[in-house]
Write a structure and sequence with these properties.
The complex is a heterotrimer of chains A (about 100), B (about 350) and C (about 190). Chain A is mainly α. Chain A is built from three helices and no strands. Chain B is mainly alpha-helical. The longest helix of chain B has about 35 residues. Chain C has six helices and two strands, in the order ββαααααα. Chain C is mainly alpha-helical and about 190 residues long. In chain C, helix 2 runs antiparallel to helix 3. Chain C folds into two domains: about 110 residues, Four Helix Bundle (Hemerythrin (Met), subunit A); about 40 residues. Chain C is globular and about 65 Å long. Classes of the chains: A mainly alpha (about 100), B mainly alpha (about 350), C mainly alpha (about 190). Chains in contact: A-C, B-C. Chains A and C meet through helix 1, helix 2 and helix 3 of A and helix 1, helix 2, helix 3, helix 4 and helix 5 of C.
Amino acid sequence: MIPLEWYLALAAVLFCTGIFGVLTRRNAIGILMGIELMLNAANINLVAFARYMHPTILTGHIFAIFVITIAAAEAAVGLAIIISIYRNIELINVDKINVMKW
Amino acid sequence: MSLTLTGIIKLVFGWLHIPEFLVQPTVMIVAAAIILGFILLVVLYLVYGLRKVMGWIQARIGPNRVGWEGLAQTIADALKLLTKEDIIPKNADKWPFIIAPIIVFVPAYMVYLVIPFGKGNGWVVQDLNIGILYVVAVLAIPTIGIITAGWSSNNKWSLLGAFRAAAQIISYDIPLVLAMVPAVMLAGTLSTQGIVNAQQGTWFGIFPRWFIVSQGVGFIIYLLAALAESNMTPFDIMEAESELVAGFNTEYSGMKFALFFLAEFASMFTVSAIAVTLFFGGWLPIHPSLSFIPPVIWFLGKAAVFIFVIMWIRSTLPRVRVDQLMSFGWKVLIPVALLNIAWTGLLVILA
Amino acid sequence: MPFDLHSINLFDMGKQFVFTLTLQKISFLAVAFMTFASAVAVVTMKNIFHSLLFLVLTFLGVAGIYLLLSADFLAAVQVLVYIGAITVLIMFALMLTSKLMAKRVSQTMEQWIVALPVTLGILVVLIRLVVLNPWGMKAAPAGPTTGIIGTSLMTKYLLPFELASIVLLVAVVGAILLAKEDKSDDPS
């Protein structure tokens, strides 16, 4: 049997990799990819706990399905925003999009 | 010792004194090799069959020079493709260019894992609990291979072709899944052997209990969506030779092109096999009195009928324009598929 | 003397810490390593298209982890939604927002000197939480999950299910509106 800690440790490592991606990427789509990594890490945690605590009532699985759904919706809207930003100014570097800054 | 693959390998390993735990991985590798051999054989004769059938429908003889009656034509074509120079365009992105055909071919091969060729667990490579869902998930992967192929070719026409191909595939993913759902509802299980087993028996001793009887519309939706997914006429905008040069595989030559080609014909067989499993009773005979013919012959026979129907459609109908295709998929197929699900739900509750 | 790979006892020197290497642990280590390596490649690659291909590999790795956790339905849904749909979406957006044929979009990692200690700090906190906590849970044998998920979604979790479909509808409408070309701006 694989101890529960291994799954949680993997999820923690993936989550931190996602945070690193969000903090260092300049391209807005690169930041979105970091966010997807973080969501996947959270899903692994949910499913691991569902398996080890209540294998017959799979609440973790259902929560994970909803997380996947919301991730899809968020990716769609986020990318639409990025596309419309690109149409107005010809780049998506997040450090150059500071029109609203005082 | 039983005559299954596992039995044979266990026997051989017992003679050679190889440890016991290596039996399972070896069985899997040998099964994969057998399926690959089957695919290569099937594709060989599907290409020949397509050219012959197209030829007969167009009132001419197809290939008949190479070998007896042209049977070795595809082998000659394959040898020609293999000995062609492998060109990678100078400004193309090298690794995505090389990986794209693999991403397109491997899922078409992975679907064979759950196709039930015959009766019992020995005739399906692995009877997964989530059989049909696995097929749907795996068939969604070639989309990214096509976009990668278009993008990394560094060629405007390839990119445009890849855009249109990807839009077509993701639009027809939804009617495909929605058409498979009622068959799963009637059977009560996602496993492919379970779906075939649920179609046993007859009504009044004459009509077999196949799902086509209550799912006529569902079958037509499935056929149209599957034809669009594997880019076959009348939906073959992706490789419309008279339009976008050759679509996303303009820059591909030699073995890589052969992989794309192999993927298309392998998915022709897959589409027929899934149609037979879901709607026409898989390996079940038409009437139980005819069950002395082995189930595998029934399965391959029914799949052959379907493949002929697909080739027939391919040789007779003209190509659909890309905007007509999209509006047909979204505005016609999806509502009809949803109504079909509602109607099947009613049937399941009332029966 | 048969050589049985099913349990090799490393470190079995009479200490409390015994590490038995089973085939399951080997699979977990292989899949976890592949997932982690792909994730690192996602956040460090210069060419963003290559980064996206490694993201696909990460999604496949996570699907493999779900299979190790006996979550068969969720693994198929992960492949279908993430690889089949979200990746295609990101590819389309990438192609529409980078100047055509300029694939070498420079992607240096800005501010990694500050980001790396922050990330490592968060990692240390999470790993301490995971390792030092006495979870004490054992995994019972699990069966097929599709039926249970389906029944729960239709009985106990019906409201979130309906709300999720409304969220998706709003997202679709919003995405189309945001990305639509403004025909009124076109002077011709």
